[in-house]
Amino acid sequence: MHLVRLSEHASAENGKAYRRSLAAFAGLGYAWVLGCLLLAAGTLAWIAGALLHGHFRAFQILGLTAAGGLLWASVRALWFRLEPAAGVRLLPHDAPALFEALERIRRKVKGPALDEVRLDAEFDASIAQRPRWGLLGGARNQLTIGLPLLMALDRQRVLAVLAHEYGHLRRDHGRFSAWIYRTRASWSRLYESLEGQAGPAATLTQGFLAWYFPRFVARTFALARQDEYQADRIAGELVGNGVAAAALAELALKGDWLEQHFWPTHWGQAAAHDLPIGPYAQMRKLLALPLPEAFAQRSLRQALRNHSGFEDTHPVLRDRLERLGVAPGLPAWSQRPAIELMGHKADRWIAHFDHQWCREQATVWKQHHSALGRIRMRIEQLRARRSRNADEWAELGDLERRLRPDAPVRAHYDQALALSPHHGPALQGIFACLPPEQAGQRMACLERLHEGSPQHRWWAAKNAVAALEDDPRHDDEALKLWRIRLKESEAAEARAWAELAEQPVLAHTSPADLNEFERWELEAELACWADLSRTWLLRKEVREFPARRCYLLVLDLPRLAPQQAEAVCRALEPRLGLPGPVLLLWSGQSPELAELRRRVRPLYDTRVAV
After folding, report:
1. Alpha helices (H) in 168-240, listed in sequence order
2. Which of 108, 322, 484, 512 makes a 20 to 30 Å CA pair with 400?
3. Which of 50-64, 346-360, 399-413 has the lowest mean pLDDT?
């Protein structure tokens, strides 16, 4: 982080000196690799000469092994191939209008020719100089265009996006930026390929890369950030700043709509269909329509609140519009999508990616279909009961919303509150049912939740702050109060999490209290992890929130190394649907957890029918 900030200051103060320092630091990497190569080759030559003259010594075998390993690691650094590019390759006869447009952009930008144009299923476009073999290999200029992008934006705005991408290869500073990018990609690929390898040469190479690669990425951050602004400027020069800004805004808003509305709705169709349905034919129809006004305004406000950080070299929307000199606002929606650039083969490509998506998602779709089937069964069980308590009314509302986000479930939550006036999940459900336009009722609901349910105070404060910040006419005093509450509730949550993880972790635990449906859901998720042998679930008492259901989930992963077991725990965490916070551990982490194998019956065991 310190080096990133220094690189930004250096770039702002003296751009030429900053680029010279980058070139020198990149040269250090090349010098190290070439030095290792020469050292290894020289050592091998010396040992070979000694052997030819009959001067054999035992230590020369170790030298031969070490030099051979170092030579191999150096050769891998200099010459290796990247993974095949995603998507399908387009040829000029596949989309003549698209290639004509790209050639016009190339002439105006005065950039190099494209070696390859590919079409993929991402809502994006990208251009890269992919190393042919490695650090010293040549490069191929590759443009990748997402099919959904062509469905969402009109021709001029797609050309603005493509001009931005082509701007990364412009002749002035583009060659240097592309070289730095290509070098960074090569180091990244080498860094990943050597992970987990043993031996003196691999250890030496890993040690250098562990020091060099993070610093190289940090030092080049400012260059990559400035390169994005320059590419925006070039797009503005080619098609006009207004068109370039409209493309950025429409791309951001429709991308948000895809994530929040289209994909959840599409996956919801698994409730009625056991085989996957391709998304892109339906996406084409919906992306051609204007976004709902209320959603677009909320999405734009959220996008404009973001700040450019260090996790991504791309600046946020507000900064990019400011550099283009265009005031933030909703764009006029595209009227004629640029899918026409694909000519008469557009339908063929949509069918191709639909088929590919169905093939790749078949297993996950079937699992989701089964999960939604279990939800339907649970709903039927709850509906069949003559009387329900507050928990069951709230659960019924939650489950019906999982099947259909727009289901009319407000009455279920009202019934729960009639039985328990401060029932936390019911108040959360009512808040979710209230549209943003009913700001007063939403805030009253959050106030009631914060007052009556201590274990839900962080959730209430987080949503209250977000709702007030999203409202241009918000009460400043109310926002100040809720920010204080959010800070206090975050501290309480930190104390609760520390209790959950404190040693010994098995203290204050009791058998799990899952109902039949909750156990179904957990076991269905665990069944998807092939390396998992057994699982133990315990409820843990947390003094900070005595009423909260908190859990320890201990995994038995006998075939995995410690690092791999830890990775499985972190990957599984966000997929669990337990009714409360859960700490994931693996049985080999400590002798205390290993004792579970003898003392406690597992919740889930692949060795027996569950």
Report:
1. 174-193, 200-219, 221-239
2. 512
3. 50-64
> Token pair of 274, please?
């056991």
Mean pLDDT of the chain: 86
Q: What's the pTM value of the predicted model, to 2 decimals?
A: 0.81
d(CA 394, CA 405): 15
Under a CB-based contact definition with an 8 Å cutoff, are residues 577 and 607 in contact? no
Q: What is the mean pLDDT of residues 186-205?
A: 62
In this model, does residue 243 exceed pLDDT 60? yes
Distance CA 94, CA 349 (A): 10
- DSSP code at position 91: -
DSSP string, 306-374: ----SS-SSPPHHHHHHHHT----PPPPPSSBGGGGGGGGHHHHHHHHHHHHHHHTHHHHHHHHHHHHH
Give the side-chain half-sphere CA count within 13 A for 363: 5
Q: Determine the distance from the C-alpha atom of residue 215 to the mean position of all C-alpha atoms in its chain, rounded to a whole number.
A: 23
Q: What is the DSSP letter of 28?
A: H
Per-residue pLDDT band for 589 (boundaries 50, 70, 90) equals confident
Query: Rounded CA gap, 232 and 223, in Å?
Result: 14
Indicate if the alpha-carbon torsion angle 559, 578, 521, 401 is positive or negative. Answer: negative
Residue 434: count of CB within 10 angstroms of its CB: 16
